[in-house]
Design goal:
single chain, 4 strands
């Protein structure tokens, strides 16, 4: 393990958690997006992370792919809605707000943990440089 691998590993974690937070914020902001019943609903996005060089202590993590939700969504009876069909239904995304809030908290905590590692590593490297001066 090289001396500055800590920054690379934690930086990859920061990037993965930021992308996770971006996906969750998109999902939350579109939870009430209605469409016509003959159109696809907003598809929620989930981020799949993958370990890089797992077990070596040198790899970090990367975003492997994004998985999208069901375009079928859920039908809601709202006959007064301007997008309602002849039977009074509109289509909403199949996104659970409670689940998205939980995902947001987990992503925030992961981001904060990786940021704390970067900050502590910076402090440790700065302290090591100070030892050389004395």
């Amino acid at each position: 393990m090289a001396i500055f691998d800590t920054f690379g590993i934690s930086g990859s974690g920061l990037l993965a958690h930021r992308k996770w937070l971006d996906a969750v914020s998109d999902n939350i902001s579109n939870v009430n997006t209605a469409t016509r019943t003959n159109e696809d609903a907003f598809q929620g996005r989930m981020i799949v992370a993958q370990a890089v060089e797992y077990g070596t202590g040198e790899g970090g993590v990367r975003v492997a792919r994004a998985v999208f939700g069901d375009p079928e969504g859920r039908l809601v009876y709202q006959p007064d809605h301007p997008l309602a069909d002849d039977e009074g239904y509109v289509k909403y995304p199949d996104i659970d707000l409670g689940d998205q809030m939980s995902q947001m908290i987990m992503a925030q905590r992961g981001y904060q943990a990786n940021l704390a590692v970067v900050e502590r590593a910076t402090q440790a490297y700065q302290a090591a440089l100070q030892l050389g001066k004395g």
